[in-house]
Amino acid sequence: MEQSQRVVLISGASRGIGAATAREMGRRGYHVVVNYRQNADAAAEVVRSIEVGGGSAQALQADVCDPGQVSGMLDRIRADRGRLDALVCNANTVNPPFEPLLTLSWDHFIGKVTGELAGAYFLTQAVLGAMVEERRGRIVYVSSTAADSIGTVAAHSTAKAALNTFSRHVAGVAAQYGVVVNTVAFGAVRTDATAGVMTGELRAFMESRSASGRLLEADEAARSIAMLADEDFSGSVGQVLRVDGGFEVLDRQLNPMVRHFE
Fold first, then answer.
1. Is residue 202 part of a domain?
2. pLDDT in tens, 8-35
3. Burial class (CB in 10 A: 0-12, 13-18, 19+), 256
4. Contact criterion met (CB below 8 Å) for 19 and 196
5. Is residue 260 part of a domain?
């Protein structure tokens, strides 16, 4: 039997941006499916925090790069809730190899690219058909401004650029059926996942290149995702929305090579 409460599935929601988004969607009245791959305790804690705040949630384990596990997770959601209104593709399926291009192995490069796309592809395939049939739904892909970066991030940048392109193709198909698809590309976000990397000199540099003078917080990122995932929002279709705390606007001022012609 279908329940009236709207349901959102968030992949990789046991920590970081995914966990913050889960809590935000819970506050907005959604039943939140907290997907995780390994850390059951962390996922259970996210569920508990949503329920303590008066919301509704459940944790479901699945490797989103495995189509069989994705299918099983969706079957469980349909059996438990009878509906799925929104999907947030957030899971970091493969840690990026931050290596110089000249020494980056093909296995590391292609592993990141295919891993990134696999998680988005299998989730999209699993939910889009029903959304098209019902002529409603929201899909949000979580990307990165690294798609436009150059340096020791070739695999990560290529993977995110491919995700952005994939999302536009999905949006083009889905929009005619009333399904709204968008992507959020985040700049540097302060999370437990970035804590070990975004420290000292690197953090100071990133803050100095941001108009706001600081890194984004996970809760700020979550509100951007939640806005696009909410059924009441329809002002953007097939866009890659940059949310970077003012990094690009200040960087364009500091770097004369990318200034507009006066």
1. no
2. 999 999 999 999 999 999 999 999 999 9
3. exposed
4. no
5. no
Sign of torsion, CA 188 190 193 195?
positive
DSSP at 5: S
CA separation, residue 177 to residues 1, 106, 131 (Å): 24, 39, 8
Say if residues 124 and 132 touch (Cβ distance below 8 Å): no
Residue 31 belongs to domain with CATH number: 3.40.50.720
| Domain count across the chain | 1
Of residues 50, 51, 60, the one with CA closest to residue 11: 60
Range of the domain at 89: 7-191+217-245
Which residue from 110, 95, 178, 185 is spatially nearest to 141, judged by alpha carbons? 185
Structure tokens at 23: 């809590």
Which residues in the chain land under pLDDT 50? Answer: 1, 249-250, 253-254, 256-262
Q: For residue 101, is it within any domain?
A: yes
Q: How far is CA 219 from CA 63, 69, 76, 144, 204, in A?
A: 25, 29, 28, 16, 21
pTM: 0.88
Instruction: Output the six-digit token pair for 2.
Output: 């279908």
Residue 203 in domain: no
